Amino acid sequence: MILARGAWLAAGVVLVLLAGDGLAMDGPASAFNVMVASVVALLAPLFWPGTPGPGRRGLWLVLAWCLGATALAALLMLGLNPRGPRVAHLAGVCGQLLLLLLAVHLLLASLLARWGGEGGLLSRGAGQAGLVLLMALMAALPLWLGPAVQGPSSGADDAVDLLLALSPLVHLAVAAGNDLLRNGWFYEHSNLAGLPFSYPEVSKLVVVYAAACLLLSLSRLRLQRPRPEAATPIPERSS
Question: Can you give the pTM of this predicted structure?
Answer without folding.
Answer: 0.84
